[in-house]
Every structure is written in structure tokens, then in C-alpha cells.
Design goal:
The protein is an alpha/beta fold and 698 residues long. Among the domains are: 75 residues, DNA polymerase, domain 1 (Orthogonal Bundle), CATH 1.10.150; 99 residues, OB fold (Dihydrolipoamide Acetyltransferase, E2P) (Beta Barrel), CATH 2.40.50; 154 residues, Rossmann fold, CATH 3.40.50; 157 residues, P-loop containing nucleotide triphosphate hydrolases (Rossmann fold). Helix content is 42%, strand content 17%. Strands 6-7-4-3-2-5-8 form a seven-stranded mixed β-sheet. It has a seven-stranded parallel β-sheet with strand order 12-13-11-14-15-10-16, sandwiched between helices. The radius of gyration is 31 Å and the shape is globular. The structure holds adenosine-5'-diphosphate and magnesium ion (MG). The site of magnesium ion has 4 residues, from helix 12.
Length: 698
């Protein structure tokens, strides 16, 4: 074991107590972990400011001067301590609300101090609250200080004197001791190709940058390293899988495909649909197993593309299945495919959690003996008991709703894995897709079927309710239907349900002349389906629902989507919900209702919705507002390693370079056995074991 991987407790300034805290609070165990605990910000300590220079919105600054006197102001809890500090020309107040006794004992008048903090404007004057104070003569000169790092710590660490400054000190002495012992993690030829800093230099300059230029170079190097190893891992595994598993070959475009295209298809395919069908066709004929991600905005017609792919399977003697995240959606797929396929002679079935045992047994049997061609359903499809005779293609609709583990189970349903087509309407920005689904090829439907009018979106506060009701009447008189959606958040389900039910009753009172459906997650599925069916067939004019209708539901005559408490939804969800309308030829509307008090982030989300219908743009904004980890539940677990410094929303270009580099290397040396690549396979192995350990521990 080298120095780099040693337990931190033996390093100067650490010891068993602090080591324990670092482990518990920040998962830091080794010298390397500590050095990879990068600062979250830097403060320029390379110059002193004059008090006269202070202006609004300044970051942390440092001043040089003396304390003239102390004053205690106020009584009891509101008591505070003020020090009048002068730089020789002007003065400013330093303010403390806590630790007054400590401050008065510690700091003296007439000593040259460096005061460090963020000026704030209070009662027309600037002051600095709880500044950092150091004795000038004990500090390195400003030329030596450069940029000062700040580190994340926890409350608990702070109460044990492990604040940012303490961490800074530990890292400083660690770097000093380790300098020659830090092993490089990238091969020399990669460093040279992109002019990257060596790891040692990068670590020194990420913690103690002399200037911002060196800080940038350190960042570049460390970001590249992170993104590169993620890509290397994905690319290597994909290469291995492609080599190991052959895909079924769908040799011909046959009878069903052609007949359906010629005689059954009720409209022209869009060019984007045709393009994607060709891409799928090339995949399934190639002899490699297809792993394709189909991205297409809500309403772009992905279901139809899936149907064509399933027909390719059937034409070649294989079975196909399509999995949807909700029973409502699975049932809807079943109904619409049945209708589209008419009397073409295919046998399709629906399997969900609420399929009756007798019917279920029958489906199982017909799958095994090959009588069924196409199976639609929910998670029920991946149960152990569901066995196919020869499953050739699996379609996963709205894939973001499924966990990685669930997908993996489908992967392993056959000895020889079927072709996989995953579809999503939550457009994942390209950079994110490359990272998380780096092993999937991506197709995009970037065109909506003709004749659709862009949905108009409005933001209303509660005071517009009366006007909104008038608008609803007008739309219903025009023959349209309306969704009213309420938020449902797991923790407070009962309360939300109450909102929903009250909303339902309220609307029933206001609109006695109309019929209203209601759907929520707590209903039995037969009940849900019956309510849904009433809306689909136009028997009800208004559908009051929770987000169970969020994905996939297709009622082209519904042209108004009203979202209550829109501030409680994320951007992706709002966009999905809006996608329930705008599916027919009529002008559609989306109304976002919110309270008056909105945070900046919420305001930005609502604005984005009002300003654009473009799912990709919305996804980009979402990524920027929330950060990639949050995007949805599966994303984080999709990343093989944690990102500490790279940012998927911002480092897209570097990610592409990292990916390209990884591809080149794996093409040339798939097992990373060449001398110059040993460093890569060892580092990958090391990262894998340590990331494995985390998951076992936490
Ligand atoms: P999504 O991509 O959101 O899953 P769907 O597959 O549900 O969209 O399709 C939305 C609607 O558009 C459906 O009613 C479907 O029949 C219709 N549609 C699909 N393709 C076309 C097309 N090429 N021309 C006209 N309508 C289409
Ligand atoms: Mg769909």
C-alpha cells in the first residue's frame, strides 16, 4: 500500500477523532480522498481593499487596519458587539451576534489586523458581520496567499473545530509531504495530447492556486479525468458485450410490416418517424444486439415507431413485448394498437398486475407455445413466471420511469438477449445521455405530426379563477375536453387527496351542467380504467386527476390542461403534463395556476414553460436549474462513479472529447493490456472497488 492510500488518521493534524468525523461526515478515509475533497469556492486574497472602494454585491474581500474601539449594543438576545475598524482613512463596523466574550478577549485595539469578510449594506452603511480576523504580521505576504480555498464541512465537524480552515491546513501539510508520492492516473500520451497538468500539479493548484490561470488548468485536468473514466468504463463494457452477445437477425421486411404500412396506417408517417424506423431496421439486421434509445417529444408519435419495430420482429418469426410504467398507459397502448392493427391477424394481449389469474394463466401458456405475437403490459412483464417462446424485441416506453435494475431484468430474459428499444419523452440532454446511457445509440424524433398547433401556455395567479372558469365553459361549448391536475407528493398523500377531492366537488358545483371524471393512484385499477374510459369516449368533459395521467395518455380531443399548484411540480413533469394536450388539430392551452409567493427558481420554471414548447430546451434548463443528480431517480444510479468536479450541464464539450478518447483507446486495445494502458485498467479497477464499497457501506 502506498502513501496515497493510507488511512488519514496518521497524518499531521488529524488523529483518530478527526479521522472518524471525516469518515462519517464526508466519506473521507484515505489521503487520496482528502486530496480529492476539492474546494467549493476560492476567495481572492491577493489584494487588500480600501474601505472607500466598498460597493454593493461584493464578494469576500480583505481589509488591512486597526480596531479603534468596541461597543456593546442592545439587550439580552438582541445584544451585539460592534468594533470600529479603520484602514487609516475611513472606518467600517465589524459586527458580532454570537461569541461576544470570546471576541473581546481575543482581539485588541491598536494591532495591525487583516479583516476578511463580505460587506453588507445595513441602515445605509456598510458593515461586515462575523469577519475572519488575523494578525497581519503572522500572515504570508499577499503575493504568497493567492486564492484561498473554502471547503464544505458539516455542522458537526464545525463544532469539533474541523472547519474549512482546519481542512485547509491538513490538506496543505498533506500535499507538502506527498508531493513526490502521488501516482499519476492518466497515461502520458493522453496528458500530452491535451496538454493536461500532471495529477500532482493539478492537486496542488486545485487547493492552493497561485492565480486563476493555474486554477483553470487544474480544473480542466481533474474534470477530464472524471469524465474520461466514466466513458472508458461504459465504452469498455459495451465493446465487451457486443463481442460476447450476438443479436438476433431480422432478415426480411415481411408481410405484416408491408401490409400494415400499405393498408392500415391511417396517416402518413412523418419524416422523422421514417428515419428512426430505418435506423431500427439497420440495427436489427446487423447481427448485433440493438440497444437504442428513442427520444421524441410528447406527441411525436413514438408508439407507432414501436409498432413498426414489433412488426419487424413478428415478420421474422419472433415475439415482441412493450412495457409501460402505468396500467392506464399499458391499457391505452393495448386499445390503440388493437384498433390500428384491426383484422390484420396478429395476436396481442395485455398483462398487468390486475389481470385475472385465469386470463394470466392463459397468456403464460400462449406466450410459451408461441400463439401470442405481441404482449403489452406493465412491470408484470418482468416477473419470473412470464416466459416467452422466442422473444426478439423488447420495447420500454417512458423508460425514465423504470429503474436500472428493472431494465436489467428484461435484458436477461433470454439466453440470447432480445433487441431493446427504450423510448422516452423526457428528452435527456445529449451530454447526459452520453454519460448515463453511453452504451445506447440514440435516435431522435425531432418533428411533430403535421397540423399540430403549438400549445399556448399561461401563468395565472389565483385571482384569475373566475376568468378561467369562463374560459373552460367556452372551450367545452366548442366541444373540447379539459384536464385539471393536482399535485400529489408521497409524504402528504392524504392531504393532497383531500385537495383533489375538494377540487372535484368544487368543480361539480361550479359546472353542474357538465360531467366530471376523477382518477388518482389510490383507486382500484378497474375503477381507474372506467373513469378514464368515460373521458376517452367523451362521456365526461372534465378530468380531475393527479399525475397518474402524466405519461403517455392520449385523448386528442382534450385541449386544455389546467395545473393546480404548478409551483409544486418540476419542469420535466410540467412539460409531460402539458403534453397531454395539443394532440389533435385544435388550438390547445395549458394554464399554470400558482400562489402569489414564488421562489426565484419556481419563477424561472414557470417562465420557461410559458416561453417554450421545446422539450429539449426545457430539459437543458432543468439540468441547469437542478443539477444532473436530481434529474430523476435513475440518473444518479446510472453513473458508474460520482462526479466531484465535472458538471454535466456545463462540461458537455469536454465530455465529448473524453468519450472520443475512450473510444479510440478501446478500439485499439479493448482489454487495456498494452503497456501504456496498464495505468488505465488499474485505475478503473481501483475506482470500481471503491465505488462498490460505498454502496455496501451506505
Ligand atoms: P408519444 O410520442 O408522446 O408517445 P403517441 O405515440 O402517443 O406520442 O402519438 C400521439 C398521437 O399522434 C397519437 O394519436 C398518434 O396516433 C398520432 N400520430 C402518430 N404519428 C402520426 C403521424 N405521422 N401523423 C399524424 N398523427 C400521428
Ligand atoms: Mg407515448
Amino acid at each position: 500500500m502506498d502513501f496515497f492510500t493510507q488511512d488519514i488518521q496518521f497524518f499531521p493534524g488529524v488523529g483518530p477523532k478527526r479521522a472518524e468525523l471525516l469518515k462519517k461526515e464526508l466519506n473521507i478515509r484515505t489521503a487520496e480522498d482528502l486530496l480529492r475533497h476539492y474546494p467549493y469556492k476560492y476567495v481572492d486574497r491577493s489584494r487588500f481593499y480600501m474601505i472607500s472602494e466598498i460597493s454593493e454585491n461584493m464578494p469576500f474581500i480583505q481589509l488591512k487596519g486597526k480596531i479603534l474601539r468596541f461597543e456593546k449594543v442592545g439587550e439580552g438576545r438582541s445584544q451585539r458587539l460592534i468594533a470600529i475598524f479603520t484602514d487609516g482613512r475611513q472606518s467600517i463596523e465589524l459586527v458580532w451576534f454570537k461569541g461576544l466574550k470570546f471576541v473581546t478577549e481575543r482581539y485588541k485595539t491598536n494591532i495591525e489586523y487583516v479583516v476578511f469578510g463580505k460587506p453588507t449594506l445595513f441602515n445605509g452603511k456598510y458593515n461586515i458581520v462575523h469577519p475572519d480576523i488575523e494578525i497581519l504580521s503572522q500572515l504570508p505576504t499577499v503575493e504568497q496567499m493567492g486564492l484561498q480555498p473554502f471547503y464544505n464541512t458539516s455542522e458537526k465537524m464545525k463544532t469539533h473545530f474541523l472547519n474549512s480552515k482546519a481542512i485547509q491546513k491538513i490538506i496543505y501539510s498533506l500535499l507538502f509531504e506527498l508531493q513526490k508520492g502521488i501516482p499519476e492516473t492518466l497515461p502520458a500520451y493522453v496528458l500530452n495530447r491535451y496538454g493536461l497538468l500532471h495529477l500532482t500539479d493539478a492537486l496542488i493548484n486545485i487547493h492552493f492556486p497561485k492565480n486563476s490561470h493555474l486554477l483553470n488548468r487544474a480544473r480542466q485536468r481533474l474534470k477530464f479525468e472524471e469524465l474520461f473514466y466514466i466513458q472508458l468504463d461504459i465504452v469498455k463494457q459495451t465493446a465487451w458485450r457486443n463481442q460476447r452477445f450476438k443479436g438476433f437477425v431480422f432478415k426480411h421486411v415481411g408481410n405484416y410490416f408491408n401490409t400494415f404500412y400499405r393498408d392500415y396506417l391511417p396517416f402518413e408517417l412523418t419524416n422523422a418517424q421514417k428515419k428512426v424506423i430505418r435506423e431500427i431496421r439497420a440495427d436489427v439486421a446487423s447481427g448485433k444486439q440493438m440497444n437504442r434509445l428513442l427520444q421524441g417529444d410528447v406527441g411525436s408519435g413514438k408508439t407507432l415507431v414501436a409498432l413498426f419495430a414489433m412488426l419487424m420482429a413478428v415478420d421474422n418469426g419472433f415475439q415482441a413485448c412493450m412495457m409501460a410504467p402505468t396500467e392506464i398507459l399499458a391499457a391505452q397502448h393495448f386499445e390503440s394498437l388493437k384498433e390500428l392493427l384491426g383484422n390484420i391477424g396478429l395476436r396481442i394481449a395485455l398483462l398487468t398486475g390486475s389481470t385475472r389469474p385465469k386470463e394470466r394463466a392463459e397468456i403464460h401458456e400462449k406466450l410459451l407455445n408461441g400463439e401470442l405475437n405481441i404482449l403489452l403490459g406493465t412491470h408484470a412483464l418482468i416477473e419470473e413466471t412470464v416466459q416467452f417462446k422466442n422473444l426478439g424485441l423488447v420495447v420500454i416506453d417512458e423508460q425514465h420511469r423504470f429503474g436500472v435494475a428493472q431494465r436489467a431484468r428484461l435484458w436477461s430474459k433470454n439466453v440470447q438477449p432480445p433487441h431493446i428499444l427504450v423510448m422516452t419523452a423526457t428528452p435527456i440532454p445529449r451530454t447526459l445521455a452520453m454519460t448515463i446511457y453511453g452504451d445506447l445509440t440514440v435516435s431522435v424524433i425531432d418533428e411533430l405530426p403535421p397540423g399540430r398547433k403549438p400549445i399556448q401556455t399561461f401563468h395565472f395567479y389565483d385571482n384569475k379563477r373566475q376568468a378561467l372558469y369562463k374560459f373552460m365553459v367556452k372551450q367545452i361549448e366548442l366541444g373540447r375536453q379539459i384536464y385539471v391536475v393536482y399535485p400529489l407528493i408521497q409524504e402528504s398523500e392524504t392531504m393532497d387527496l383531500k385537495n383533489l377531492e375538494e377540487g372535484y366537488e368544487h368543480l361539480s358545483e361550479i359546472f353542474p351542467q357538465y360531467k366530471i371524471s376523477m382518477v388518482h393512484g389510490k383507486m382500484k385499477s378497474a375503477e381507474k380504467e372506467a373513469e378514464m374510459q368515460k373521458f376517452v369516449t367523451g362521456k365526461t368533459q372534465i378530468m380531475v386527476a393527479t399525475t397518474v395521467i402524466e405519461v403517455g395518455v392520449n385523448v386528442p380531443n382534450a385541449s386544455v390542461m389546467i395545473i393546480e399548484n404548478a409551483e409544486r411540480f418540476g419542469l420535466a413533469q410540467l412539460h409531460q403534463l402539458r403534453g397531454r394536450v395539443g394532440r389533435g388539430a385544435d388550438q390547445s392551452y395549458c394554464i399554470l395556476l400558482t400562489g402569489y409567493k414564488l421562489s426565484n427558481l419556481t419563477r424561472k420554471r414557470i417562465e420557461t414553460m410559458v416561453n417554450t414548447n421545446d422539450g429539449f430546451q426545457i430539459a437543458e434548463t432543468d439540468l441547469q436549474l437542478r443539477g444532473p443528480g436530481d434529474l430523476d431517480g435513475t440518473q444518479q444510479s446510472g453513473l458508474p462513479f460520482e462526479l466531484k468536479i465535472a458538471n454535466l450541464a456545463q462540461d458537455g464539450k469536454m465530455l465529448e472529447i473524453a468519450r472520443k478518447t475512450a473510444i479510440d483507446i478501446i478500439e485499439d486495445d479493448p482489454q487495456l493490456q498494452k503497456n501504456e494502458n496498464i495505468i488505465l485498467s488499474e485505475q478503473l479497477k481501483k475506482m470500481k472497488t471503491s465505488s462498490l464499497n460505498w454502496s455496501v457501506i451506505s
